[in-house]
Write a structure and sequence with these properties.
The structure is a homodimer of 105-residue chains. With 105 residues, chain A is of the alpha+beta class. Chain A has one domain: Orthogonal Bundle (Arc Repressor Mutant, subunit A). Helix content of chain A is 64%, strand content 13%. In chain A, a hairpin with a 2-residue loop joins β2 and β3. The first copy, chain A, is elongated. The interface between A and B is medium-sized, with 35 and 35 residues. Chain A binds a DNA duplex (30 and 30 nucleotides) through α4. Chains A, B: InterPro entries: ArsR-like_HTH, HTH_ArsR_DNA-bd_dom, HTH_MetalResp_TranReg, WH-like_DNA-bd_sf, WH_DNA-bd_sf. Chains A, B: This is Metalloregulator ArsR/SmtB family transcription factor. Chains A, B: It comes from Paractinoplanes bogorensis. Chains A, B: It holds the Pfam family HTH_5.
Amino acid sequence: METYRGPDGWEILGDPSRRAIVECLARRPRAVGELAEELPISRPAVSQHLRVLKDAGLVDDEAAGTRRVYRLNPAGVSALRDQLDMFWQRTLRGFEEIVENEEQA
Amino acid sequence: METYRGPDGWEILGDPSRRAIVECLARRPRAVGELAEELPISRPAVSQHLRVLKDAGLVDDEAAGTRRVYRLNPAGVSALRDQLDMFWQRTLRGFEEIVENEEQA
DNA sequence: CCAATCGGTAAGTTGTAACTTACCGTTCGT
DNA sequence: ACGAACGGTAAGTTACAACTTACCGATTGG
């Protein structure tokens, strides 16, 4: 089915668990198990989400003994932010013209 | 499955067809059939997306003969925008502190 | 070493959202 | 009044993403 393609920023942050992980990592870096404790999902599920976030460049990971610490990647975050902003710019340009026209009526 | 709940802004704009519709309506109001012509999906599919967008307060519709013209609802759009911004604010607060700390190292 | 901790991966399930086709009511022009 | 255009809705399918459990390798401490 899938009409268009590409795991863009919307698809990445479209998942609530992923957003929770991002917010969590924004406060401080965490190991996988720590994240799982704070979320209502299993550790493997967290692992899979982290994979998506890492592929998207949103997080970096670092081995620390048997643990693996994940942290937000500032560059990735701001890139994603920019990507989403583009949608609003495209949408709101042209749109404000319409609003102005209608407010005359 | 679904861990959290609520058709929030992310779920609404998470769908590419819906984003395309919003961008389309941002340029100018359109009838359902017109939208369907510009999109690679059927007219009923468009109708269903419009329902979601209308329930979310993102679009308004107006009967015009046998046709029904949809247009973006400015208030809804800006409300949605604000909702998404809240995520970034929550995320980026606390996060910039971390970035600053790391840039010292 | 051995046991324990930690995390990634494989495999399988399952709910759901995005579509389709088919149908029906409404509006309008002639 | 009839046919055509238009759009909403019902019903069914289907692809997929988000989970789960089970397993396995790697690291570490005693």
